[in-house]
Amino acid sequence: MGVFLKFWRHRALLRAFIGREIRSRYIGSGAGIFWALIHPLLLLGLYALIFSTIFKVALPELGERRFIEFVAVALWPWLAFQESVQRGLQAVVANSALVKKVAFPPELLVYGAVMGTFIVHLIGYIVVLALLAILGHGLHASGIFGTLALLGLLLILSLSIALPLAAMQTLARDTDQFMAPVFIVLFYATPILYPLTAVPEWLRNGMAWNPLLYFVQPIRDLLLTGHYSLDWQTLMAWALVPVLFVAGYQFFRRLAPHFEDFL
């Protein structure tokens, strides 16, 4: 309950951190806008060129769906997750002077970085979905509300991971270097460039431990088919997200008193 009270008590400061993250990272420079909006589009075009044009990969599981829409609806949630965790991971260290001079809950820096990143990628996602609909890619409007709910839950998962990583980065500065290859492995272990049904059964069982699976797959189904068939594994994964957030928050708060000694 304490974490939610802090959200409410420091909501003005949190809004300020979110606004600062958006302004400094994305609006303050042309490179920020490039990374947030153009870079994902270039990635999408590159994947379409490599897999559809050069290698001419044929996936019967796609049916009449085009590869570009199949990847696009899953790529943006992944990018929001990856970059928000990376930004949150660095939030305390990047604001070391502020942490040492001003008394405030340092987790607000992580919240601001993660939420600001999510907001920007959500705007880009809406633009891409609108373009796909205009170009006749047949997205289902009925899946929009379910997608927004899942993105909200994905935001909480990102916070759950960013909080302990930010604490570890403050005490051990090579945490971000360790996470770089982890994100690469996690990306290819998530069914973004391929359908889950194309994965062999023995490997699919191992992928069930990937938390991103329970967000990417439902979002894709909701937007491309208009519905998603729930199973107990997905429900359990969603139910664990608030638990992970509380655990991540407690881990962060346990280490927070030692931050000034390492900054």
Explain briefly what this protein structure is.
With 263 residues, this protein is an all-alpha fold. Helices cover 77% and strands 0% of the residues.
Detail the poorly predicted runs: none
Structural class category: mainly alpha
- Series of secondary-structure elements, N-terminal to C-terminal: HHHHHHHHHHHH
Average pLDDT figure: 86
Q: How many beta-strand segments?
A: 0
Global outline: globular
- Tally of discrete structural domains: 1
Distance between the termini: 29 Å
Number of helices: 12
Roughly what fraction of the amino acids lie in strands?
Answer: under 5%
- Strand count, sense and closure of the main sheet? none
Please state the CA-atom Rg, rounded to the nearest Å: 19 Å
Helix content: over 70%
Strand and helix map with partners:
Blueprint: H1 2-9, H2 11-27, H3 30-54, H4 67-94, H5 96-101, H6 107-134, H7 144-171, H8 175-188, H9 201-207, H10 213-225, H11 232-255, H12 259-262
